[in-house]
Amino acid sequence: MHSFVQTIAALALASVVTAQQLCNGHASLCSRSYSNITYLGAHNSYAAVPNSVASNQLVNVTTQLNDGIRLLQNQAHQNNETGSDGVGISLCHTSCDLLDGGTIEEYLTEVVAWLEANPDEVITILWVNSDNLSPSLYATVYESTNLSAYTYSPPTSLTTLSDLPTLSSLIGNNTRVITFMDSNADASIVDYILPEWDFVFETAYDSTDATFPCDLDRPSGGTSDGKLYLVNHYLDTEIISSVLIPDTAALDTTNGYASLQANYEGCYALYSRPPNFVLLDYYSIPTNGSVFSWVAELNGVNYTAPTNGLLGGEAQSENTASGALSWWNQIATEAGESTISSVAAAVVTQTMSTLVGTRNGSSTSTSWGEVGGRGRSGRELGLAGTMSLGVVGVVVGVLVGL
Ligand SMILES: *[C@@H]1O[C@H](CO)[C@@H](O)[C@H](O)[C@H]1NC(C)=O
Ligand SMILES: *[C@@H]1O[C@H](CO)[C@@H](O)[C@H](O)[C@H]1NC(C)=O
Ligand SMILES: *[C@@H]1O[C@H](CO)[C@@H](O)[C@H](O)[C@H]1NC(C)=O
Ligand SMILES: *[C@@H]1O[C@H](CO)[C@@H](O)[C@H](O)[C@H]1NC(C)=O
Ligand SMILES: *[C@@H]1O[C@H](CO)[C@@H](O)[C@H](O)[C@H]1NC(C)=O
Ligand SMILES: *[C@@H]1O[C@H](CO)[C@@H](O)[C@H](O)[C@H]1NC(C)=O
Ligand SMILES: *[C@@H]1O[C@H](CO)[C@@H](O)[C@H](O)[C@H]1NC(C)=O
Ligand SMILES: *[C@@H]1O[C@H](CO)[C@@H](O)[C@H](O)[C@H]1NC(C)=O
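A: This is the predicted complex of the input protein with 2-acetamido-2-deoxy-beta-D-glucopyranose.
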Protein backbone atom coordinates (compact mmCIF):
# COMPACT_ATOMS: atom_id res chain seq x y z
CA MET A 1 0.00 0.00 0.00
CA HIS A 2 2.76 2.35 1.02
CA SER A 3 4.71 1.75 -2.13
CA PHE A 4 1.53 2.06 -4.20
CA VAL A 5 0.96 5.51 -2.75
CA GLN A 6 4.58 6.38 -3.37
CA THR A 7 4.30 5.19 -6.94
CA ILE A 8 1.18 7.28 -7.51
CA ALA A 9 2.89 10.27 -5.91
CA ALA A 10 5.94 9.77 -8.10
CA LEU A 11 3.77 9.53 -11.20
CA ALA A 12 1.87 12.65 -10.19
CA LEU A 13 5.11 14.48 -9.64
CA ALA A 14 6.42 13.31 -12.98
CA SER A 15 3.35 14.60 -14.74
CA VAL A 16 3.64 17.94 -12.97
CA VAL A 17 7.26 18.22 -13.94
CA THR A 18 6.71 17.30 -17.57
CA ALA A 19 3.55 19.40 -18.05
CA GLN A 20 4.47 22.58 -19.82
CA GLN A 21 4.16 25.63 -17.61
CA LEU A 22 1.71 28.18 -18.97
CA CYS A 23 1.72 31.81 -17.88
CA ASN A 24 -1.42 33.80 -18.67
CA GLY A 25 -2.30 31.03 -21.09
CA HIS A 26 0.98 30.82 -22.99
CA ALA A 27 4.32 29.12 -22.35
CA SER A 28 6.15 31.84 -24.24
CA LEU A 29 5.01 34.52 -21.77
CA CYS A 30 6.62 32.79 -18.77
CA SER A 31 10.11 34.15 -19.26
CA ARG A 32 8.95 37.66 -20.07
CA SER A 33 8.98 40.45 -17.53
CA TYR A 34 5.59 41.60 -16.26
CA SER A 35 6.48 44.90 -17.93
CA ASN A 36 7.05 43.31 -21.35
CA ILE A 37 3.43 42.31 -21.94
CA THR A 38 0.34 44.21 -23.08
CA TYR A 39 -2.72 43.56 -20.91
CA LEU A 40 -6.31 44.46 -21.72
CA GLY A 41 -8.23 46.22 -18.99
CA ALA A 42 -11.86 46.75 -18.11
CA HIS A 43 -12.60 50.42 -17.43
CA ASN A 44 -14.77 50.49 -14.29
CA SER A 45 -14.82 46.71 -14.15
CA TYR A 46 -17.58 46.67 -11.49
CA ALA A 47 -19.87 48.99 -13.46
CA ALA A 48 -21.94 46.31 -15.15
CA VAL A 49 -25.37 47.30 -13.90
CA PRO A 50 -28.03 46.36 -16.46
CA ASN A 51 -29.07 49.19 -18.75
CA SER A 52 -27.49 51.88 -16.61
CA VAL A 53 -26.14 54.94 -18.34
CA ALA A 54 -23.40 54.87 -15.69
CA SER A 55 -22.25 51.37 -16.69
CA ASN A 56 -19.10 50.67 -18.66
CA GLN A 57 -19.27 46.89 -18.97
CA LEU A 58 -21.85 44.20 -19.66
CA VAL A 59 -20.61 41.34 -17.50
CA ASN A 60 -19.31 40.68 -14.00
CA VAL A 61 -15.65 40.47 -13.05
CA THR A 62 -15.53 36.66 -13.10
CA THR A 63 -16.67 36.63 -16.70
CA GLN A 64 -14.24 39.44 -17.55
CA LEU A 65 -11.34 37.41 -16.17
CA ASN A 66 -12.54 34.23 -17.89
CA ASP A 67 -12.64 36.15 -21.15
CA GLY A 68 -9.04 37.37 -20.75
CA ILE A 69 -9.26 40.79 -19.11
CA ARG A 70 -6.11 41.13 -16.97
CA LEU A 71 -6.36 44.70 -15.65
CA LEU A 72 -9.27 45.58 -13.38
CA GLN A 73 -9.69 49.34 -13.09
CA ASN A 74 -12.10 50.45 -10.39
CA GLN A 75 -13.41 53.64 -8.79
CA ALA A 76 -13.67 53.22 -5.03
CA HIS A 77 -15.73 55.48 -2.76
CA GLN A 78 -16.33 55.82 0.92
CA ASN A 79 -19.77 54.42 1.62
CA ASN A 80 -22.02 53.75 4.59
CA GLU A 81 -22.59 50.18 3.55
CA THR A 82 -19.79 48.14 5.08
CA GLY A 83 -18.45 44.71 4.31
CA SER A 84 -18.26 42.04 7.01
CA ASP A 85 -14.79 43.40 7.78
CA GLY A 86 -16.35 46.74 8.78
CA VAL A 87 -14.75 48.68 5.93
CA GLY A 88 -17.09 51.07 4.11
CA ILE A 89 -15.58 51.26 0.64
CA SER A 90 -17.83 50.59 -2.33
CA LEU A 91 -17.42 50.48 -6.07
CA CYS A 92 -19.45 53.41 -7.29
CA HIS A 93 -19.46 55.45 -10.45
CA THR A 94 -18.98 59.08 -9.48
CA SER A 95 -21.46 58.70 -6.61
CA CYS A 96 -22.92 55.73 -4.77
CA ASP A 97 -26.37 57.23 -5.35
CA LEU A 98 -25.85 56.84 -9.06
CA LEU A 99 -24.33 53.41 -9.46
CA ASP A 100 -23.49 51.26 -6.47
CA GLY A 101 -21.62 48.15 -7.50
CA GLY A 102 -21.36 46.79 -3.96
CA THR A 103 -18.53 46.74 -1.46
CA ILE A 104 -14.95 46.12 -2.49
CA GLU A 105 -15.04 43.13 -0.14
CA GLU A 106 -17.75 41.43 -2.24
CA TYR A 107 -15.90 42.27 -5.42
CA LEU A 108 -12.48 41.10 -4.20
CA THR A 109 -13.96 37.88 -2.82
CA GLU A 110 -15.02 37.11 -6.38
CA VAL A 111 -11.55 37.99 -7.68
CA VAL A 112 -9.84 35.74 -5.09
CA ALA A 113 -12.11 32.82 -6.00
CA TRP A 114 -11.08 33.27 -9.61
CA LEU A 115 -7.36 33.50 -8.72
CA GLU A 116 -7.60 30.28 -6.73
CA ALA A 117 -9.27 28.51 -9.66
CA ASN A 118 -6.67 29.90 -12.09
CA PRO A 119 -3.24 29.45 -10.51
CA ASP A 120 -1.21 30.34 -13.60
CA GLU A 121 -2.62 33.81 -14.15
CA VAL A 122 -1.20 37.21 -13.26
CA ILE A 123 -3.58 40.16 -12.99
CA THR A 124 -3.37 43.87 -12.17
CA ILE A 125 -5.79 45.92 -10.09
CA LEU A 126 -5.87 49.71 -10.45
CA TRP A 127 -7.75 51.71 -7.84
CA VAL A 128 -9.10 55.17 -8.39
CA ASN A 129 -9.13 56.18 -4.74
CA SER A 130 -11.86 58.79 -5.16
CA ASP A 131 -12.07 59.86 -1.52
CA ASN A 132 -8.33 59.67 -0.80
CA LEU A 133 -8.89 56.96 1.79
CA SER A 134 -5.97 55.51 3.69
CA PRO A 135 -4.38 52.46 2.07
CA SER A 136 -4.70 50.77 5.46
CA LEU A 137 -8.49 50.52 4.86
CA TYR A 138 -7.88 48.76 1.58
CA ALA A 139 -5.33 46.52 3.30
CA THR A 140 -7.99 45.45 5.81
CA VAL A 141 -10.09 44.21 2.89
CA TYR A 142 -7.09 42.65 1.13
CA GLU A 143 -6.53 40.70 4.35
CA SER A 144 -10.17 39.79 5.04
CA THR A 145 -10.53 38.42 1.51
CA ASN A 146 -7.02 36.89 1.54
CA LEU A 147 -6.12 38.86 -1.56
CA SER A 148 -3.07 40.12 0.36
CA ALA A 149 -1.63 36.59 0.21
CA TYR A 150 -1.51 36.84 -3.59
CA THR A 151 -0.35 40.44 -3.92
CA TYR A 152 3.17 41.31 -4.97
CA SER A 153 5.32 43.66 -2.87
CA PRO A 154 8.30 44.96 -4.78
CA PRO A 155 11.69 45.21 -3.15
CA THR A 156 12.41 48.82 -2.18
CA SER A 157 15.34 48.67 -4.59
CA LEU A 158 13.00 48.37 -7.57
CA THR A 159 13.88 51.21 -9.85
CA THR A 160 13.52 50.20 -13.47
CA LEU A 161 10.90 48.42 -15.46
CA SER A 162 13.18 45.61 -16.47
CA ASP A 163 13.61 44.73 -12.79
CA LEU A 164 9.96 43.75 -12.55
CA PRO A 165 9.74 39.96 -12.23
CA THR A 166 8.85 37.58 -15.01
CA LEU A 167 5.37 36.07 -15.08
CA SER A 168 6.92 32.75 -14.19
CA SER A 169 8.49 34.25 -11.07
CA LEU A 170 5.23 35.93 -10.01
CA ILE A 171 3.39 32.66 -10.53
CA GLY A 172 6.12 30.62 -8.83
CA ASN A 173 5.88 32.82 -5.74
CA ASN A 174 2.08 32.94 -5.98
CA THR A 175 2.23 36.74 -5.90
CA ARG A 176 0.07 37.06 -8.96
CA VAL A 177 -1.66 40.35 -8.27
CA ILE A 178 -0.06 43.74 -8.86
CA THR A 179 -1.98 46.63 -7.29
CA PHE A 180 -1.70 50.30 -8.18
CA MET A 181 -3.56 53.22 -6.60
CA ASP A 182 -3.87 56.68 -8.09
CA SER A 183 -3.81 58.70 -4.87
CA ASN A 184 -2.70 58.34 -1.27
CA ALA A 185 -0.72 55.15 -1.76
CA ASP A 186 2.07 54.95 0.83
CA ALA A 187 4.54 52.09 0.88
CA SER A 188 5.36 52.82 4.51
CA ILE A 189 1.73 51.97 5.39
CA VAL A 190 1.01 49.20 2.86
CA ASP A 191 3.91 48.02 0.73
CA TYR A 192 1.84 46.08 -1.82
CA ILE A 193 -0.38 49.02 -2.85
CA LEU A 194 1.88 50.75 -5.33
CA PRO A 195 1.63 54.47 -6.07
CA GLU A 196 0.39 54.47 -9.65
CA TRP A 197 2.30 57.57 -10.77
CA ASP A 198 5.66 56.22 -9.59
CA PHE A 199 5.21 53.28 -11.96
CA VAL A 200 2.68 54.23 -14.64
CA PHE A 201 1.70 57.08 -16.94
CA GLU A 202 -1.53 57.40 -18.88
CA THR A 203 -2.85 58.92 -22.07
CA ALA A 204 -5.95 61.14 -21.81
CA TYR A 205 -9.19 59.58 -20.61
CA ASP A 206 -12.71 60.51 -21.68
CA SER A 207 -11.53 61.05 -25.23
CA THR A 208 -14.12 62.16 -27.74
CA ASP A 209 -11.45 61.95 -30.43
CA ALA A 210 -11.55 58.54 -32.10
CA THR A 211 -7.86 58.85 -33.01
CA PHE A 212 -7.00 58.63 -29.28
CA PRO A 213 -4.02 61.02 -28.97
CA CYS A 214 -1.08 59.38 -27.22
CA ASP A 215 0.38 62.36 -25.37
CA LEU A 216 1.22 61.82 -21.75
CA ASP A 217 -1.77 63.18 -19.80
CA ARG A 218 -1.13 62.01 -16.24
CA PRO A 219 0.83 62.43 -14.08
CA SER A 220 0.76 66.07 -15.03
CA GLY A 221 4.25 67.21 -15.97
CA GLY A 222 5.52 63.65 -15.60
CA THR A 223 7.89 61.68 -17.74
CA SER A 224 7.46 58.45 -19.66
CA ASP A 225 10.97 57.28 -18.78
CA GLY A 226 11.12 53.99 -16.95
CA LYS A 227 7.36 53.75 -16.54
CA LEU A 228 4.71 51.34 -17.64
CA TYR A 229 2.03 53.00 -19.72
CA LEU A 230 -1.69 52.82 -19.95
CA VAL A 231 -3.67 53.82 -23.01
CA ASN A 232 -7.25 54.89 -22.36
CA HIS A 233 -8.92 53.47 -25.44
CA TYR A 234 -12.58 54.18 -24.82
CA LEU A 235 -14.59 56.71 -26.70
CA ASP A 236 -17.08 59.12 -25.24
CA THR A 237 -19.63 61.18 -27.04
CA GLU A 238 -20.84 64.58 -25.94
CA ILE A 239 -24.63 64.54 -26.04
CA ILE A 240 -25.00 68.10 -24.85
CA SER A 241 -22.39 70.59 -23.74
CA SER A 242 -19.95 68.89 -21.35
CA VAL A 243 -22.20 65.86 -20.89
CA LEU A 244 -20.19 62.82 -21.93
CA ILE A 245 -21.45 59.27 -22.21
CA PRO A 246 -19.74 56.16 -23.59
CA ASP A 247 -20.14 56.13 -27.36
CA THR A 248 -21.79 52.74 -27.41
CA ALA A 249 -22.86 53.13 -31.03
CA ALA A 250 -19.18 53.18 -32.04
CA LEU A 251 -18.08 50.10 -30.07
CA ASP A 252 -17.67 47.82 -33.08
CA THR A 253 -15.19 50.34 -34.47
CA THR A 254 -13.54 51.45 -31.21
CA ASN A 255 -12.97 47.87 -30.06
CA GLY A 256 -12.14 46.66 -33.55
CA TYR A 257 -8.72 45.72 -34.86
CA ALA A 258 -8.09 48.82 -36.97
CA SER A 259 -8.74 51.32 -34.19
CA LEU A 260 -6.68 49.41 -31.60
CA GLN A 261 -3.83 48.90 -34.03
CA ALA A 262 -3.77 52.56 -35.10
CA ASN A 263 -3.73 53.67 -31.45
CA TYR A 264 -0.86 51.29 -30.69
CA GLU A 265 1.12 52.47 -33.71
CA GLY A 266 0.58 56.13 -32.81
CA CYS A 267 1.83 55.52 -29.28
CA TYR A 268 4.73 53.37 -30.47
CA ALA A 269 5.89 56.32 -32.55
CA LEU A 270 6.11 58.40 -29.36
CA TYR A 271 7.41 55.90 -26.85
CA SER A 272 9.16 53.21 -28.96
CA ARG A 273 7.38 50.42 -27.13
CA PRO A 274 3.84 49.05 -26.97
CA PRO A 275 1.52 50.01 -24.09
CA ASN A 276 1.37 47.78 -21.04
CA PHE A 277 -2.31 48.37 -20.49
CA VAL A 278 -5.16 49.20 -22.84
CA LEU A 279 -8.33 50.17 -21.02
CA LEU A 280 -11.67 49.47 -22.71
CA ASP A 281 -15.38 50.13 -22.27
CA TYR A 282 -17.68 47.20 -23.11
CA TYR A 283 -14.74 45.01 -24.13
CA SER A 284 -17.19 42.24 -25.05
CA ILE A 285 -18.54 44.22 -28.00
CA PRO A 286 -18.02 43.09 -30.71
CA THR A 287 -18.78 39.64 -29.37
CA ASN A 288 -16.22 37.85 -31.54
CA GLY A 289 -13.38 38.73 -29.17
CA SER A 290 -11.64 41.08 -31.58
CA VAL A 291 -9.94 42.88 -28.69
CA PHE A 292 -8.31 39.66 -27.50
CA SER A 293 -7.15 38.48 -30.90
CA TRP A 294 -5.60 41.91 -31.42
CA VAL A 295 -3.68 41.84 -28.12
CA ALA A 296 -2.56 38.24 -28.71
CA GLU A 297 -1.00 39.32 -31.97
CA LEU A 298 0.73 42.21 -30.22
CA ASN A 299 2.10 39.83 -27.59
CA GLY A 300 3.18 37.35 -30.26
CA VAL A 301 0.88 34.54 -29.14
CA ASN A 302 -2.10 32.78 -30.71
CA TYR A 303 -5.55 33.68 -29.43
CA THR A 304 -7.84 30.84 -28.42
CA ALA A 305 -11.35 31.79 -27.36
CA PRO A 306 -12.05 30.66 -23.80
CA THR A 307 -14.64 27.99 -23.20
CA ASN A 308 -16.04 29.51 -20.04
CA GLY A 309 -16.31 33.25 -20.61
CA LEU A 310 -18.83 35.41 -22.38
CA LEU A 311 -16.82 35.02 -25.54
CA GLY A 312 -16.95 31.28 -25.06
CA GLY A 313 -20.69 31.50 -25.52
CA GLU A 314 -21.91 32.38 -22.04
CA ALA A 315 -25.24 34.18 -22.10
CA GLN A 316 -25.08 37.92 -21.69
CA SER A 317 -28.14 37.90 -19.41
CA GLU A 318 -30.47 40.87 -19.44
CA ASN A 319 -27.57 43.26 -19.68
CA THR A 320 -27.22 42.70 -23.36
CA ALA A 321 -25.10 44.38 -25.94
CA SER A 322 -28.19 45.66 -27.64
CA GLY A 323 -29.41 46.92 -24.28
CA ALA A 324 -26.27 48.98 -23.89
CA LEU A 325 -26.27 50.10 -27.46
CA SER A 326 -29.88 51.11 -27.49
CA TRP A 327 -30.26 52.57 -24.04
CA TRP A 328 -30.63 56.14 -25.14
CA ASN A 329 -32.61 55.21 -28.21
CA GLN A 330 -35.03 53.26 -26.05
CA ILE A 331 -35.48 56.26 -23.79
CA ALA A 332 -35.89 58.40 -26.88
CA THR A 333 -38.61 56.23 -28.32
CA GLU A 334 -40.47 55.90 -25.08
CA ALA A 335 -40.18 59.60 -24.40
CA GLY A 336 -41.56 60.32 -27.86
CA GLU A 337 -38.22 61.60 -29.09
CA SER A 338 -36.38 60.19 -32.03
CA THR A 339 -32.66 60.73 -31.47
CA ILE A 340 -30.08 60.86 -28.75
CA SER A 341 -29.73 64.61 -29.05
CA SER A 342 -33.46 65.11 -28.75
CA VAL A 343 -33.35 62.98 -25.59
CA ALA A 344 -30.61 65.22 -24.32
CA ALA A 345 -32.87 68.14 -25.01
CA ALA A 346 -35.66 66.30 -23.19
CA VAL A 347 -33.38 65.84 -20.22
CA VAL A 348 -32.99 69.56 -19.91
CA THR A 349 -36.63 70.38 -20.57
CA GLN A 350 -38.35 67.72 -18.49
CA THR A 351 -37.83 66.39 -15.02
CA MET A 352 -36.09 63.06 -14.84
CA SER A 353 -39.18 61.65 -13.14
CA THR A 354 -41.18 62.34 -16.28
CA LEU A 355 -38.59 60.56 -18.36
CA VAL A 356 -38.46 57.65 -15.99
CA GLY A 357 -42.22 57.51 -15.86
CA THR A 358 -42.36 57.48 -19.61
CA ARG A 359 -39.79 54.76 -19.76
CA ASN A 360 -41.68 52.36 -17.59
CA GLY A 361 -45.13 53.32 -18.73
CA SER A 362 -46.22 55.04 -15.55
CA SER A 363 -46.37 58.78 -15.38
CA THR A 364 -46.23 58.59 -11.60
CA SER A 365 -43.06 56.54 -11.40
CA THR A 366 -40.34 58.28 -9.45
CA SER A 367 -37.59 55.72 -9.40
CA TRP A 368 -34.35 57.06 -10.83
CA GLY A 369 -33.12 53.56 -10.17
CA GLU A 370 -35.08 52.38 -13.19
CA VAL A 371 -32.86 54.48 -15.39
CA GLY A 372 -29.74 55.12 -13.39
CA GLY A 373 -29.30 51.53 -12.44
CA ARG A 374 -29.08 50.03 -9.01
CA GLY A 375 -26.25 48.38 -7.27
CA ARG A 376 -25.73 44.76 -6.49
CA SER A 377 -27.32 45.50 -3.15
CA GLY A 378 -30.51 46.35 -4.99
CA ARG A 379 -30.66 49.74 -3.37
CA GLU A 380 -33.37 51.93 -4.88
CA LEU A 381 -32.07 55.35 -5.54
CA GLY A 382 -35.32 57.24 -5.27
CA LEU A 383 -33.91 60.62 -6.25
CA ALA A 384 -36.14 61.45 -9.18
CA GLY A 385 -39.15 62.69 -7.31
CA THR A 386 -37.28 65.64 -5.93
CA MET A 387 -34.82 66.20 -8.71
CA SER A 388 -34.77 69.64 -10.19
CA LEU A 389 -33.75 70.31 -13.76
CA GLY A 390 -30.40 71.61 -12.62
CA VAL A 391 -29.70 68.51 -10.58
CA VAL A 392 -30.59 66.29 -13.51
CA GLY A 393 -28.14 68.15 -15.68
CA VAL A 394 -25.38 67.95 -13.10
CA VAL A 395 -25.99 64.31 -12.31
CA VAL A 396 -26.07 63.26 -15.94
CA GLY A 397 -23.02 65.41 -16.56
CA VAL A 398 -20.86 64.02 -13.84
CA LEU A 399 -21.78 60.43 -14.07
CA VAL A 400 -21.14 59.37 -17.50
CA GLY A 401 -17.72 60.15 -18.76
CA LEU A 402 -15.48 59.54 -15.81
C1 LIG B 1 8.54 42.92 -25.23
O1 LIG B 1 9.84 42.72 -25.74
C2 LIG B 1 9.88 42.43 -27.13
C3 LIG B 1 11.31 42.11 -27.49
O2 LIG B 1 12.15 43.16 -27.13
C4 LIG B 1 9.34 43.62 -27.90
O3 LIG B 1 9.30 43.33 -29.27
C5 LIG B 1 7.93 43.92 -27.41
O4 LIG B 1 7.46 45.08 -28.07
C6 LIG B 1 7.91 44.11 -25.91
N1 LIG B 1 6.52 44.32 -25.46
C7 LIG B 1 6.21 45.19 -24.51
C8 LIG B 1 4.75 45.32 -24.12
O5 LIG B 1 7.03 45.85 -23.93
C1 LIG C 1 -21.17 36.26 -13.30
O1 LIG C 1 -21.97 36.22 -14.46
C2 LIG C 1 -22.17 34.91 -14.94
C3 LIG C 1 -22.92 35.03 -16.25
O2 LIG C 1 -24.08 35.77 -16.10
C4 LIG C 1 -22.94 34.10 -13.92
O3 LIG C 1 -23.10 32.76 -14.37
C5 LIG C 1 -22.15 34.08 -12.62
O4 LIG C 1 -22.90 33.42 -11.63
C6 LIG C 1 -21.84 35.49 -12.18
N1 LIG C 1 -20.94 35.39 -11.04
C7 LIG C 1 -21.19 35.98 -9.90
C8 LIG C 1 -20.20 35.72 -8.81
O5 LIG C 1 -22.18 36.68 -9.72
C1 LIG D 1 -23.93 58.07 5.87
O1 LIG D 1 -23.63 58.26 7.23
C2 LIG D 1 -23.55 59.63 7.61
C3 LIG D 1 -23.04 59.70 9.04
O2 LIG D 1 -23.73 58.79 9.83
C4 LIG D 1 -24.92 60.28 7.42
O3 LIG D 1 -24.85 61.64 7.75
C5 LIG D 1 -25.32 60.15 5.95
O4 LIG D 1 -26.61 60.65 5.76
C6 LIG D 1 -25.27 58.70 5.51
N1 LIG D 1 -25.47 58.65 4.09
C7 LIG D 1 -26.28 57.78 3.51
C8 LIG D 1 -26.35 57.88 2.02
O5 LIG D 1 -26.92 56.94 4.11
C1 LIG E 1 -4.64 32.58 1.64
O1 LIG E 1 -3.96 32.24 0.45
C2 LIG E 1 -2.74 31.54 0.69
C3 LIG E 1 -2.05 31.40 -0.65
O2 LIG E 1 -2.78 30.55 -1.48
C4 LIG E 1 -3.04 30.21 1.35
O3 LIG E 1 -1.83 29.57 1.63
C5 LIG E 1 -3.81 30.47 2.64
O4 LIG E 1 -4.22 29.25 3.17
C6 LIG E 1 -5.04 31.32 2.37
N1 LIG E 1 -5.65 31.67 3.63
C7 LIG E 1 -6.95 31.60 3.81
C8 LIG E 1 -7.43 32.04 5.15
O5 LIG E 1 -7.71 31.19 2.96
C1 LIG F 1 10.34 34.18 -6.46
O1 LIG F 1 10.74 35.50 -6.80
C2 LIG F 1 12.16 35.68 -6.84
C3 LIG F 1 12.40 37.14 -7.09
O2 LIG F 1 11.71 37.59 -8.26
C4 LIG F 1 12.73 34.79 -7.93
O3 LIG F 1 14.13 34.92 -7.97
C5 LIG F 1 12.37 33.34 -7.64
O4 LIG F 1 12.79 32.54 -8.73
C6 LIG F 1 10.86 33.22 -7.51
N1 LIG F 1 10.51 31.86 -7.13
C7 LIG F 1 9.87 31.03 -7.93
C8 LIG F 1 9.56 29.68 -7.39
O5 LIG F 1 9.49 31.35 -9.04
C1 LIG G 1 -15.63 41.01 -35.32
O1 LIG G 1 -16.89 41.66 -35.45
C2 LIG G 1 -16.79 42.97 -35.98
C3 LIG G 1 -18.14 43.61 -35.87
O2 LIG G 1 -19.12 42.79 -36.42
C4 LIG G 1 -16.25 42.89 -37.40
O3 LIG G 1 -16.12 44.20 -37.92
C5 LIG G 1 -14.87 42.23 -37.36
O4 LIG G 1 -14.40 42.05 -38.67
C6 LIG G 1 -14.94 40.89 -36.66
N1 LIG G 1 -13.59 40.43 -36.48
C7 LIG G 1 -13.23 39.17 -36.66
C8 LIG G 1 -11.80 38.85 -36.40
O5 LIG G 1 -14.05 38.31 -36.98
C1 LIG H 1 0.20 29.96 -33.89
O1 LIG H 1 -0.54 29.05 -34.67
C2 LIG H 1 0.08 28.75 -35.92
C3 LIG H 1 -0.87 27.92 -36.75
O2 LIG H 1 -1.44 26.90 -35.97
C4 LIG H 1 1.40 28.03 -35.64
O3 LIG H 1 2.05 27.74 -36.85
C5 LIG H 1 2.28 28.94 -34.80
O4 LIG H 1 3.46 28.27 -34.45
C6 LIG H 1 1.57 29.39 -33.55
N1 LIG H 1 2.35 30.42 -32.90
C7 LIG H 1 2.62 30.39 -31.61
C8 LIG H 1 3.39 31.56 -31.10
O5 LIG H 1 2.24 29.49 -30.88
C1 LIG I 1 -42.48 51.66 -12.89
O1 LIG I 1 -41.80 52.16 -11.76
C2 LIG I 1 -42.53 52.06 -10.56
C3 LIG I 1 -41.72 52.73 -9.47
O2 LIG I 1 -40.46 52.16 -9.36
C4 LIG I 1 -42.79 50.58 -10.26
O3 LIG I 1 -43.53 50.47 -9.08
C5 LIG I 1 -43.55 49.98 -11.41
O4 LIG I 1 -43.68 48.59 -11.18
C6 LIG I 1 -42.81 50.20 -12.72
N1 LIG I 1 -43.63 49.74 -13.82
C7 LIG I 1 -43.16 48.92 -14.74
C8 LIG I 1 -44.13 48.55 -15.82
O5 LIG I 1 -42.04 48.47 -14.71
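Residues 1-17, 312-328, 343-402 have pLDDT under 50 and may be disordered. Residues 2-18 form the longest helix (17 residues).
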